[in-house]
Amino acid sequence: MTAASIGTAPAAWPEQTSAPGTCRIAEGEAIIALRDEWMAFAGCSIVDNIFFDAGFAIPAIAHLHPSGIGVALTHDVRGGPLAVAPFTRTRLGRIAPAVRLWGNKYAPLGVPLLAGDDPVTALDSLVQGLVPASSGRSLIVPDVETDSPVAAALVAIAEDGDRPLTALHMHERALLTRQNASIVRGQGGSHRKGLRRMLRRLEDLGEVSFDVATQTDTVGARLEEFLAIEQAGWKGRRGTALTSTGATAAFAREAVLGLAAVGRARVHSLRLDDQPIAALISFIAGATAYTWKIAYDEAYARFSPGVQLIARVPEQLFDNAAVQRIDSCAGADHAMIERFWPERLAIASYVLGPPGGGAVHAVGLAAARAELAARASARQLLNRR
User: Fold this and answer.
1) What is the rounded distance in angstroms from the CA atom of residue 206 to the CA atom of residue 98?
2) Could you tell me if residue 301 is left (phi over 0), alpha (psi between -120 and 50 degrees) or otherwise beta?
3) Alpha-carbon torsion (179, 185, 188, 192), positive or negative
4) 3-163+355-384 CATH choice from 1.10.10, 2.60.40, 3.40.630, 3.80.30
5) Superfamily of domain 175-345
6) DSSP secondary structure code for residue 146 in this structure
7) Residue 207 class from Cβ within 10 Å (0-12 exposed, 13-18 middle, 19+ buried)?
């Protein structure tokens, strides 16, 4: 399947009038026609989110969820762009009608792209287009930075429209900013001393180098190395490597190569005699870089090749003057990365209810909370094994 074969759309939503302009809804094959406009939109967004870039989102929709996903684009009265986001129809807590900005397990950020200099106006155009006051629907915005223009805009929209706003699944993940990169790089400590010692031992086996591929053809070759290393390791044994299914492999190749063609994807590697023993895929959107996926050759585990690489990647990413911070994309309490990156990115999923809330919304919200608590308990039980 290619991105040109997105499934048939369900009954189309009518074009919505959303102050101050219109909200266009594209589903099925119509999403492909938006590619160029969507790609250009990402270049003017005041919000960084590589996962809602067309180069990532369209392959994800095509290969991971080829039906049931729509894309909303809003414009001002002059036709200028305001907001864009993929979305899906759902039910909050499996009960209350809702629209969820669409993410997936490969996209740990769910904020829409917003243009212009007024994030409240831009985001409100999306709210009015997807969940207007008369619809009775809630809007679910997953994985939002709590200290961000999007979070602040949601608060303002909730207050102005008498809509309840709830933050769910609050957690933190590791972050590194440019201003702290040199401090972190200069830190001592037992972990870094141990890394340097292991690196010296690795050098006894051959020539060690750290490489970063930025050109499309080289990125393609390095991506295949990454996929082979990942498949040979524990993710391959668990069936969660990107090449474990044809759909995820096609998605990864199309997304990474497409973003590399416009300078937004890199593949970093630690090499021994020019053979990769660790590899990491990174993306760049605006002022933010993302360390998306990492894999290492388990035959060299005693040298901590993955940790060696993650310790060098910030220097390679901050070589791009536009990059001001690196989002680890890691889960909460990720022991390895949090040893090296002291800053934290606070994340929450926001639920913007219908005006006045209402009984159905309240029951759906309670059910959603219960489901999240059950999942957290299940994870704790699995971690104890």
Assistant:
1) 57
2) alpha
3) positive
4) 3.40.630
5) Gcn5-related N-acetyltransferase (GNAT) (3.40.630.30)
6) S
7) exposed
- Separation of alpha carbons 137 and 361, rounded Å: 8
Within 10 angstroms of residue 382's Cβ, the number of other Cβ atoms is: 8
Structure tokens, 110: 């769910």
User: Could you tell me if 293 and 226 are in contact, meaning their C-beta atoms sit under 8 angstroms apart?
Assistant: yes
List where CATH 3.40.630.30 sits in the chain. 175-345
- How high is the pLDDT of residue 233? 98
pLDDT digits (tens, 9 = 90+) for 245-270: 999 999 999 999 999 999 999 999 99
Tell me which residue of 133, 166, 142 sits closest to 19, measured CA to CA: 133
213 SS3 class:
strand
| Residue showing tokens 């200290």 | 147
Residue 69: strand pairing partners? 88
Q: Kind of pairing, strands 343-352 and 325-327? A: unpaired
The angle, 0 to 180 degrees and rounded to 10, between the axes of the packed helices 35-44 and 54-64 is 140
Nearest of 162, 168, 72, 166 to residue 125 by alpha carbon: 72
Cα distances (Å, whole numbers) of residue 372 to 148, 226, 349, 358, 367: 23, 33, 11, 21, 9
Instruction: Supply φ then ψ for residue 130, to 5 degrees.
Output: -100, -40
Q: How many other CB atoms sit within 10 Å of the CB of residue 117?
A: 8
Please name the amino acid found at residue 362. Answer: A
pLDDT of residue 384: 63
> What pTM was computed for the model?
0.92
Q: What residue type is 215 in one-letter code?
A: Q
Tokens 């993710």 -> residue: 235
Tokens of 115: 């243009």
CA separation for the pair 94, 264 (Å, rounded): 37
Question: Over 90: is that where the pLDDT of 20 sits?
Answer: no
